[in-house]
Amino acid sequence: MPGRTHSSTAANRPDVPAPETRGTRPAGGPGTAPHASTAQALEEQGGTPLTAGERTGVVRPLPARPCYRRQLRRIGSGRVLDIGCGVGDTLADCAPGSVGIDHDPRSVHKCRARGLTAYTADAFLASPHARPGTFDALLCAHVLEHLEDEQVEGLLRAYLRYVRPGGGVLLITPQEAGHRAEAAPVRFTDFTLLRAFAESAGLAVRRTYSYPLPRAAGKLLRRNVFALVGQVPR
Fold it and tell me: Are 39 and 97 a contacting pair, CB within 8 Å?
């Protein structure tokens, strides 16, 4: 599986988890959608305590998540499906008709309070927006590093169907400093793994790059990320 390709960066860093440090978890039962969540980060910041059910699933961390609207320009200016949208900081600057998905109902509520369109994963499936080819682009930022191999593949398969043929895809994961700061990451997901996941999903990889600074800054700067720009086949 793509995620079991050992990253040379991770292998040489004792503080970065190796790719197979955890057992495989199921990608979700019938009638459910893959998801990412901000729930754990909210609890750690002193938010409302989580129920046992809210503690399950994948977590996506960190307050002060950067806004990636400028990066989205690399894949067009149309409607975006933002997977793991959090409280909607990037979604707020996307084109009208864009939609966010997050596992945490509180994040979805905050998005809606801002006038944004957002759903939990399963609610999205029942929404009028869950139609093939509805969106022009897909954003998935600070999510994949929290997923096992099968979950990454399931998530991309589940949501890429809603992006039109020829539409753009932007995948973003943290570099070393950001990875260490995140809540419960599964593995260090670098350019090698991003490319493997994208190609496994059938995407054409157009570009990979380090943002906002060159790659070396990732060891110190939490906001430095790996970015992959892909395209859905026409």
Answer: no
21 belongs to a structural domain: no
Kindly state whether residue 16 falls inside one of the protein's structural domains.
no
Token output for 101: 């998905």
In sequence order, what are the residues at sequence separation of 6 or more whose Cβ sits closer than 8 angstroms to the Cβ of residue 20? 4
Across all residues in the chain, what is the average pLDDT?
79
CB 167 within 8 A of CB 76: yes
Query: Is residue 175 one of the residues assigned to a domain?
Result: yes
What confidence tens digit (pLDDT) does each residue in 11-52 have? Answer: 333 333 333 333 333 344 444 566 554 333 333 333 333 333
| Cα 102 to the center of its chain, rounded Å | 10
Is pTM beyond 0.70? Reply is: yes
Alpha carbons 46 and 36: distance in angstroms, whole number: 20
